[in-house]
Amino acid sequence: MEILNALVTLMNFVVLPAASYGAQLALGALGVTLIYGILRFSNFAHGDTMALGTALVILVTWGMQALGIGLGPLPTALLALPFGIALTAAFVLGTDRVVYRFYRRKRSEPIILVMASVGVMFITNGLTRLIIGVDEIRFDDGARFLFTVRDFREWSGLAEGMSLRVSQLLTLLVTALCCWALFRFLGRSRAGKAMRAYSDNEDLALLSGIDPERVVRLTWIIASALVVIAGTLYGLDKSFKAFNYFQILLPIFAAAIVGGLGNPLGAVAGGFIVAFSEVAVTYPWKKVAEYLGFQPQELLQLLSTEYKFAVSFTILIVVLLFRPTGLFRGKSV
Amino acid sequence: MKKLLLASAAGALIAGAAGAEEIKMGISLGLTGPLESIAPPIQKGAELAMKEVSDSGKLLDGSTITPIAVDNTCIDAAASVAAVERLVTSEGVKGIMGGMCSGETIASLEKVGVPNGVVMISPSATSPALSTLDDKGFFFRTSPSDARQGQVMADIVLERGINSVAVTYTNNDYGKGLADSFAASYKEKGGSVTVVSAHDDGKGDYSAEVAALAAAGGDALIVVGYADQGGAGIIQGSLDTGAFDTFVLPDGMVNQALVERFGTQLETSFGQNPSAEGEGHDKYAEMATAAGFDGTSAFSGEAYDAAAMMLLAMQAAGTSDPKLYKDKVMEVTNAPGEKILPGELAKGLELLAAGEDIDYVGATSVELVEPGESSGVYREVDFKGGKLNVVGFR
C-alpha cells in the first residue's frame, strides 16, 4: 500500500508532467535536428515559428468553434492542425525563398545562416504578436480530464491520487505517432532516403540525380509540421503565450544537442532526458521518501524550482565536455 | 492651533496672489505588465479627481490641472525610474499619483521622488518595506501596509478552522513582504506554515512549483500573486494535480477574471482585499459609472483619494510646491474638520480657502496613520457558487 502511494505520487507529480513536457521538447528537437542535419545550420527561428504556427492553429480553431465544428471530448485544435501546418509551411517556405536560399546558393558559412535565422526569429516574433497579441490564450476545449485525482482516489482507495489530462495523453500519443511516421519515412520512402543522402553528402546526392531544392522544401515542410504539432500540444497542455515559445527554444536546443545534432533518434531521447532531469532535480522527494519508510526532516529538494532552466544547461555542458557529438553520435557542433 | 490656522490662511492669501497656473500632475501606473487589467480604472479614478478640481476653478485661484500618465511596467524598476524621471524633470509635475507595485515604487521614490522633492501618493503599493523607508515626508499611500493585511489574513484563515497552510508568493517585494508578514502572524497565532516558496511570473508551466508545494502539504494554499500571471498558473496546476482545493487569495488575486476562469472550482476558497464600504464608497461608484468605468475595481477609489489629497493639500498650503504642501497631506485627510466625500472636492477647496479645517473621507474612508499610510479596511470575500461574494468587512 505504502509503495503504491509512493508510486502514485511519483506518477502524478514527476512522471506524467515530465513525460508530456519531454514529448513536446522531443517534437521541437526533431525539427531542429532535421534542419541542422539537412540544411546545416541551427535554426534560431524555431521557437517563434512554433509560436506563429500555434497562433494560426488558434485562429482556425476559433473559426471552427464559431461555425460549431467540434470534436466532442477532444480539443477542436486537433482539427485545425492541418490548416495551421499548411499555413506555417507556406510561411516557412516563403522565408526560405526570401532569406535562406540566397545564402545556400552562395554556399555561405553556417554561422551566416544562423545569424540570418536570428533575423527571421525577430520578424516571426513580431508577426505573431501582431496577429494574436501578447496575452495568455487558452484554447483547449472538450474534456479536460480523462480521470481526476478524486476519481482515482475513489477508484483505488489509496491516500494519494493522480490525474490524467486529455492533453497529456494526447501529447504522448501524437508524439509517438509522429516519431513512428517520421522514422518510417526517413528509413523506407524514396524521398526520405534522398533526404538522408543529401544530409550525408550534398555533392554526391546531386550526382545521383537528387534535386536539392526538392529536398530542402520537403525538410522545411516536415519541420514545420513537427513544430506546429509541438507548439499546439504545448499550448493545449499549458496555455498559449508568445513569449513562452521563445523561452522553450533553450531546452529544445539542449535536447537536440544532448541527443546529438542531426540524429532524429537522439533528439527524441534528448527531449525526454532534459524534461525528466528538469522535473526530477527540482522535485522535493519528501512525500515519496515518507511512503518508503524514511522520516526526512527536510523537503529533499536538490534545487529550488527557480533554477529549473539551469538543469538543461548543466546537462548540455557535461555532454559537450565529454561527448561533443551527443549521446547518439550526431554531427559535432 | 488657531495661530497655525491663521498662519496658513495668511499663507494661502499671499500665495494666492501669485495667480492661477497650470499644474501638471503625474500618474505612474503599470499600464502594461502583470496588473495591466486593473490599471485603467485606477488611472481613470485619479483623472476623475483632477478633472473635478480643475473644473471647479477653486484651486489656488482657478489653477487648472493637467494629468500626465506614464507606464511604469509594474515589474521593471529601471523602466519605472526612467518613466518617473521623465515626469519630474521634463514635465515638471508637482505631484505623482503612483507607483503601483511595491518594488518599482520603492525604486522610483528613492531615485527620483525624494531627491527631487516630489510628493508621491501610491494607491496600491502595499509592501511593509515602504513603512520603514526614509521618505523625508514625500511618500504617502492610500492603501494599508501588508503588515496589516498579513494579520487580517491570518485571522480569517484561523477563524475558518484551517491550521496548516503552504504559502507561495510572486518573486518580488510585494509578494515576499505579504508572505512573510502573514507567515509570522499566522505562526504567532498558533497556525503552522509547511513551506514558504516563491514562484516567478510569466512562465508557461508551474507543475514543478506545485509539486514542491504539494510535497510540503497543508490544508490550504496561500497564493500571494497576480491573477493575470503566475498566481492563476499555480491555482491551475494545483487543481489539475489535486494538490490543493482551497486557496486563500489576497489583493491582486481577488478579481473577476479569476472567477470567470475557475468558476466553481474555487468553491471552498476565500480571500480579502483592501476595500471600503460606506457613503463615500457608494458615491464614488456612482460617479465612476457616470464617467464610464468601474469604480469598485481594485484600488480605483484609492487612486481618486490619492489625487484628491494632493490637490487639497496644495490648497491648504496655498502653493503647488511639493516641498511645502507635503506637510499638509496628513492634516487635510485626518480629523478634525468638515467631512469631505467624493464629488465634494469643490466644497473642500472652499473651506480650505476660508481657512477652515477639513477631514477628507473620500471613496475609501481614508485615514492616515504614521508614517503616512492608510489604516486600512479589508473586505473578506468567498467564491461560493462560482461568484465573487463579499462576506464582510474588517
From TrEMBL, chain A:
Transmembrane regions listed in the UniProt entry: 20-39, 51-71, 77-99, 111-132, 166-186, 215-236, 305-322
UniProt signal peptide: none
CDD domains: TM_PBP1_LivH_like
Keywords: Amino-acid transport, Cell inner membrane, Cell membrane, Membrane, Transmembrane, Transmembrane helix, Transport
Protein origin, superkingdom: Bacteria
InterPro entries linked to this entry: ABC_transp_permease, BCAA_transport_permease
Membrane topology value: Multi-pass membrane protein
Cellular location(s): Cell membrane
GO biological process terms held by the UniProt record: D-alanine transmembrane transport; L-alanine transport; L-isoleucine import across plasma membrane
Cellular component aspect of the GO annotation: plasma membrane
GO molecular function list: L-isoleucine transmembrane transporter activity; L-leucine transmembrane transporter activity; L-phenylalanine transmembrane transporter activity; L-valine transmembrane transporter activity
Keyword set includes Secreted: no
Presence of the UniProt keyword Membrane in the record: yes
Family of this protein: Belongs to the binding-protein-dependent transport system permease family. LivHM subfamily.
Protein name: Amino acid/amide ABC transporter membrane protein 1, HAAT family
Organism: Paracoccus halophilus
TrEMBL record, chain B:
InterPro entries (UniProt xref): BCAA_transport (IPR051010), Leu-bd (IPR028081), Peripla_BP_I (IPR028082)
Record has Secreted as a keyword: no
Ranges in coiled-coil conformation: none
Similarity-based family: Belongs to the leucine-binding protein family.
Superkingdom, natural source: Bacteria
Species annotation: Paracoccus halophilus
Signal peptide range: 1-20
UniProt-recorded name of the protein: Amino acid/amide ABC transporter substrate-binding protein, HAAT family
Keywords, sorted A to Z: Amino-acid transport, Signal, Transport
Organismal lineage: Bacteria, Pseudomonadati, Pseudomonadota, Alphaproteobacteria, Rhodobacterales
GO biological process terms on file: amino acid transport
Domain Leucine-binding protein: 22-323
Record has DNA-binding as a keyword: no
One Pfam assignment: Peripla_BP_6
